[in-house]
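HAD family hydrolase
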Amino acid sequence: MAFYKHYSFDLWLTLIKSNPRYKQERAQYFYRNFNRKNKTAEEIVIIFRQVDLMVNAINEKAGKNVDAEEMYLMIISMINDYDFNFHDIDLQQLDHDMEQLVFMHMPKLYSDDCLDVLAKIKESGKSTTNILSNTGFIKGKTLKKVVYQLGIDQYIDFQLYSDEVRMSKPSTGFFQLMLDTIDRTKHPGLLLSDVIHIGDNPYADVRGAEAMGINSMLINSNNLSISNLLYDTV
């Protein structure tokens, strides 16, 4: 195995995947609490999907970040036929309840190979690592707890989330922040060719990395898995 000096990882659908129960229970929560127009739970699931796709496309295009609270208000408005009366909504309580829902229905490791590959990279003593992730309905502060619970964080040097820095992949600013955060005392004279970003999204991950001049690897959405990193060479 030939090692890069620094490995940057996407999170969703690269290292972890959603628990199917989470999205179902999230829809039930909004069905019970914000459903004055008596939408069905299935209709609410569809609304969540529409907002998720729309906001993801906006974030990728603008390079910025629409926050979770804003996304939840969009959901509530759409459930209620675009009613904009948000006065009675307690956003702090909503944030708390949504985080608890994540912990009740925890995301899972994307594959059994994830921790083994991360461990081999770190055990080499030659490489550092990070997570570089766009966020949506689940905030970075919650994802850090998930990463800890799943045992990923012991192999990761730092984590960057779009909602915390107001930038989203594929923006060069987000990738530049990642490069600027790498510990240069461990990697004096680090070159762009020494860095690789791994993710599942051909646009946000691969094109974003290539625009920055660093290496990239697309996994999981094609015929490659994270284990292919063990056979990749600089």
